[in-house]
Amino acid sequence: MGQLRVEKVQEFIKQEISKIILTELKDPRVGFVTVTHVEVSGDLHTAKVYLSLMGNDEQKVATWQGLQSAIGYLRSEIGKRIRLRITPELSLHIDDSLDYSTRIQELLTKLKQEEGSR
């Protein structure tokens, strides 16, 4: 399988899952979600979908539960929209790099404020 093909499939899945979550999922538990990236295996059998969840801890848990219960729907919709012999098995993963970078930024801001008050 060519690397270019894998990259195209990754980008397609990322765009389609974003659209499905935004416009088609009717689960009230699902809040604001961003699909940050998708990793598809070289044989196109599996796809890891990385998501950034927004909101407080309670909202994030509810969103995560809603997304987990919709994984079959997400896969079937991808299967209808993609032209492959097989539809990759989807697995959802939380991408907390945004939370991490926000925390680092807060710490840096706090450090600057402390230095400025000396």
TrEMBL record:
Query: Where can this protein be found?
Result: Cytoplasm
Task: Provide this UniProt record's keywords sorted from A to Z.
Answer: Cytoplasm, Ribosome biogenesis
- Give the CC-aspect GO terms: cytosol
Q: Name one GO biological process term.
A: maturation of SSU-rRNA
Q: What family does this belong to?
A: Belongs to the RbfA family.
Record's function text: One of several proteins that assist in the late maturation steps of the functional core of the 30S ribosomal subunit. Associates with free 30S ribosomal subunits (but not with 30S subunits that are part of 70S ribosomes or polysomes). Required for efficient processing of 16S rRNA. May interact with the 5'-terminal helix region of 16S rRNA.
Q: Which PANTHER family match?
A: RIBOSOME-BINDING FACTOR A, CHLOROPLASTIC-RELATED (PTHR33515)
> What is the protein named?
Ribosome-binding factor A
The gene from which this protein is expressed is rbfA
